[in-house]
Amino acid sequence: MSGNGFGHLFRFTTWGESHGAAIGAVVDGVPPRLKLTEADIQPWLDRRRPGQSRFTTQRQEKDRVEILSGTFEGLTTGTPVSLLIRNEDQRSRDYGEIRDKYRPGHADIAYDMKYGIRDYRGGGRSSARETACRVAAGAVARKILGDGVRIRGSLVRMGADRIDPAAFDDAEIDGNPFFCADAAAAARWEDLLGRVRKAGSSVGAVVEVRASGVPPGLGAPAYDRLDADLAKAMMGINAVKGVEIGDGFAAAALSGEANADEIRMENGRPRFLSNHAGGVLGGISTGQDLVVRFAVKPTSSILTPRRTITRSGEETEIRTRGRHDPCVGIRAVPVGEAMMACVLADHLLRHRGIDSARGG
Amino acid sequence: MSGNGFGHLFRFTTWGESHGAAIGAVVDGVPPRLKLTEADIQPWLDRRRPGQSRFTTQRQEKDRVEILSGTFEGLTTGTPVSLLIRNEDQRSRDYGEIRDKYRPGHADIAYDMKYGIRDYRGGGRSSARETACRVAAGAVARKILGDGVRIRGSLVRMGADRIDPAAFDDAEIDGNPFFCADAAAAARWEDLLGRVRKAGSSVGAVVEVRASGVPPGLGAPAYDRLDADLAKAMMGINAVKGVEIGDGFAAAALSGEANADEIRMENGRPRFLSNHAGGVLGGISTGQDLVVRFAVKPTSSILTPRRTITRSGEETEIRTRGRHDPCVGIRAVPVGEAMMACVLADHLLRHRGIDSARGG
Amino acid sequence: MSGNGFGHLFRFTTWGESHGAAIGAVVDGVPPRLKLTEADIQPWLDRRRPGQSRFTTQRQEKDRVEILSGTFEGLTTGTPVSLLIRNEDQRSRDYGEIRDKYRPGHADIAYDMKYGIRDYRGGGRSSARETACRVAAGAVARKILGDGVRIRGSLVRMGADRIDPAAFDDAEIDGNPFFCADAAAAARWEDLLGRVRKAGSSVGAVVEVRASGVPPGLGAPAYDRLDADLAKAMMGINAVKGVEIGDGFAAAALSGEANADEIRMENGRPRFLSNHAGGVLGGISTGQDLVVRFAVKPTSSILTPRRTITRSGEETEIRTRGRHDPCVGIRAVPVGEAMMACVLADHLLRHRGIDSARGG
Amino acid sequence: MSGNGFGHLFRFTTWGESHGAAIGAVVDGVPPRLKLTEADIQPWLDRRRPGQSRFTTQRQEKDRVEILSGTFEGLTTGTPVSLLIRNEDQRSRDYGEIRDKYRPGHADIAYDMKYGIRDYRGGGRSSARETACRVAAGAVARKILGDGVRIRGSLVRMGADRIDPAAFDDAEIDGNPFFCADAAAAARWEDLLGRVRKAGSSVGAVVEVRASGVPPGLGAPAYDRLDADLAKAMMGINAVKGVEIGDGFAAAALSGEANADEIRMENGRPRFLSNHAGGVLGGISTGQDLVVRFAVKPTSSILTPRRTITRSGEETEIRTRGRHDPCVGIRAVPVGEAMMACVLADHLLRHRGIDSARGG
């Protein structure tokens, strides 16, 4: 297997399975002399942690992060920051029928086709648990970005039910178990997800991540575009099936007139009158808010029997019992925020390295 | 500027501006002894070539590709394949007002913010002309994939008008100037785009690319997922604002039951009863058809005046005259196909290098 | 800081400082289903471990390796192999004068110039302790190479005293504390190094690493040459100042006639009559023994006072007391072996990925 | 084949065979707004050009470089700089016996083992002609480094005959056909090489490259050390068999006392009293002169018959007629300079990106 690292100058590599002793991340490309302690990382992990409401898996993990290297007296030394999170709740359980049966909609069959391995215990590297490492790495990235860059994710749709954009209230996001910025929608979702959970079913969602204070000029116009790297980052999160920037798929229906973000001057600086572009033009940030959305499919772990086959090729049915999230999109919110932080930190260092070095 | 290369083992690097002498690509990571001549590449370039109907820019470019290195007696030698395409139609023109004014919705302002350079002649590396190099590199990638993998793109939506999936006819795609698989839709679009063009306006689109015959097992479960690399590839095409795999954003509205692709056996091999996943589970190909869609925004080059500023910060208006595509999504179809070929070739080599080497 | 990873397909990333809680390596690009347990790694670490004779530092470290991820039931799963080695002997000591004074010949001044950090405790990432991680990663690489590839390092020179090549006896290498293949030289070195140690001085050395059973065809002719990657690998070991392949610098004095390794047939395969090339031609392995040598400078930790400056720019003198190796070249032997294993494993995977895929 | 690119942020990719239409390099990672025209590159190519004295191959190549992209009105735009050099002297010749016979000491047998291809015309990518591209890329790198960094190579040994270091005169280097800084040695070499040439033989050499004005702090302490990257760069030049930094292999014979570069203050800055380290400590530049030497083996193209085999496995003999360099080390001098420039430019951008960003 390859591809367990992400980024170019700011680069992290993650390891660990959900049912091993621990998981972790090694973050390379950290500038020296940044303030960093566990207390800078833990709050972000706490937001992603399972078991906090009845709407996420009841697996109990404290997700305590330990910094094993890369800091001295509360400052980064520039050396790799090694982050460790122990797995605590690996309760012995009866894997029963999932041991030999593939789950329709789950990665297990593809994984087995590729590696010849059936890690029935928890999905191996496909486990959502791996995303805790992304959140930890994202916390380091935020230190590079500094306080001027603010990254905020929320759930804007659960199943077919969307929030009302006019009701979007940033202060509401942490006031409900869904990271929902629309109080009325949150109330509806509580009901919706309660029913889904009781039915042993699951539902998809759409997450939106916004970053404000992003300096203009991050990115590049060919392949390492800021939007392309964000697309890779978000599509690389478990269960994500779509990514869009700014107006995204809706832009396909627009005319050129409607799509053009007109420009005026304000306090001596360009000001865009709208943000259809979502903060990126030609792969480069414009200084407007960066707006990314991604679609999360419903988890494949459901109680209703589905037709499937066994490893040995016999046709059968499967029901998945166990501790699962009825809407995995909820816990994808902090993960999306973290991935955006990592992409921005990487592009900030790249920009500083090459393009800020412009001649006279 | 960095990031002018794409891929890991199969890796190409492109260069050139739309108004220089030539553009080109250097393809590294090509296995030796594959059949390759210009005749294997030219047909794909011809599909992307401008000036073929009244619905694409009237810029006249033959887009003749020359292989400068990497082949001997019709076979690849394994050395880098250097591909050259001369720019022919660089007519001296009056850049007039676009010389100093930013075009709303265009990359020129972001480019200038980053590089301190105003290449008013044609967008520098942001020019759609660069995508000819991607198509050429894609033709080399197809030789690695072999005839068993078939990649086919089409336009599935123009503006707000979608094709009827039930009317999808592969044979229709090359029968109209829109790469449209639905004859009725193509007829409607002819009318629609004619009006858009006459109005000096533009319209967005959605492109779908399908690959059949993809071997199972390509990709990896963490960051270099097949879907994540496809997302980067497609979002990295000019004017693309969204990418989705399989059901994509529609998956957010599904229940786990509806989203599960059930599995049966057929001729001793697993057969999926549906393809909501779009051929990828956990970042790894399943052997089903790979289905990717991307949204293309309308071009910013329109005749209607828009408010903007000049380089020196004065408020003004702009109208863009010149030879432009009223629907840039059309010519993005062969580009999307090429990028899919490149991603698949790269993952095929990676899979062969690491994971096909499995022990006992 | 960047650059804490090594390799392309087989890629490991190391972390940790000599005076933190632990050090470690994350190995990515491991094929699935290889046999791997701690018992496959520990013996190589034991060879590098300090405190085994009076000729190496008396720091007491057990260097027990723990596999935190990437294996299941004794087989690799393909997922990243995370290796942890705890630091045990971090005795509180009086850093005294080295706290503020730079050691002539030591990296501390360059490190401080770059990072603005003075990690007087143990050299930060410049510490020789980091090389334990390379040895651990090398043990994983050996599993990829299989038993057919045999890698063996030895000390061929201590100070000005060289071994007699005619007396080279592989079986002798583990019979003395110097990894010396010439029993007579080992006896002389025992005397020599005893005197150096008592004088509080230090001495340089030359290490030779040989690999037999290397398949022909590893490497590439341009930049990622097998010899170039070996040069980077060996020059990247602490205190190394020179690297050579085959005849190395002596080749400069040869005529073309003398340097040519003539070729005959033997059992239907090419056989070279000599090995001036050291197993590499044009950056590609030939199937002959791979022969690499590297020069290790004497450690800068010596008792004789040397003129230096303090961090604040005052002129002064320094003597380094403490637990140090009088000849750091000795412990570089297992490190050189490990780096060769990693380079070979990486090139084996790359070759398999791209070039073994040659067309008909 | 892979590995035709070099560098991380400043990264160039080369292509082309000696007997094709042209060779070239694409340079990515170039900061915008640097002055660059062909006149900045051509002089460096002229120094490497063959046919300038009777001591280099009589192949006649003008080596005229063309910039195909990346500049506008004499300034870099930041976009990739594509450099083209046409092959002119591809005279039709009788390859005679080298068509089917391997040349002992030449890469042709290894190349064929790997790729299954026999490019008897000129060595494919193993040809020394490829190094012209490195020289061109190096000229771009010098623009990034600026005039403050001065890089100067010379031949310090031909065969067994070394220069007298005390007689080293920088002004002498361009006054003889050997890039020799010692006039007396140059006179001896004229005689020596005349005899070698007449005998149809060849001889090895040692090249030294020095850089002054290198800022302290370039490099990193683990794998991407400045010295490790220089070792890869130099060992990657055709026919190179050894690389050393500072005292190099001689350091193995030194005591710690002799090897320590003592430090004093001068004008408020550290001054080293000697330079055994060659300007690098712990992989990081110290601000002292960077001193690298590499050994070049004698070319395998000689008139004396050598025993070899044919492609089909028959034992035979071979003599190589044709236009060859009796001492390929001479033309390696500008190549070594160029590679040092590329390594320094890359590390300068990396340092600026990550480590210069240090917190408060």
Task: Summarize the topology.
The structure is a homotetramer of 360-residue chains.
Chain A: E1 5-6, E2 11-15, E3 22-28, H1 38-48, E4 65-69, E5 71-72, E6 75-76, E7 81-86, H2 108-115, H3 131-145, E8 150-158, E9 161-162, H4 183-198, E10 205-212, H5 226-235, E11 240-245, H6 256-259, E12 263-266, E13 269-272, E14 280-281, E15 284-285, E16 290-296, E17 306-309, E18 315-318, H7 329-353
Antiparallel strand pairs in A: 1-2, 2-3, 3-7, 4-7, 5-6, 8-9, 8-10, 10-16, 11-16, 12-13, 14-15, 17-18
- N-to-C CA distance of chain A: 46 Å
- What quaternary form is this? homotetramer
Number of strand elements of chain A:
18
Count, helices of chain A:
7
Biggest sheet layout of chain A: 5 strands, antiparallel
Task: Give the rounded overall mean pLDDT of chain A.
Answer: 91
Q: What is the N-to-C succession of helices and strands of chain A?
A: EEEHEEEEHHEEHEHEHEEEEEEEH
Strand order of the largest sheet of chain A: 1-2-3-7-4
Helix content percent band of chain A: 10-25%
Structural class of chain A: alpha+beta
Whole-angstrom Rg of chain A: 21 Å
C-alpha geometry of chain A = globular
The two chains with the largest interface, and their residue counts, are: A-B, 119 and 119 residues
Uncertain runs of chain A are: none
Residue share in β-strands of chain A = 15-25%
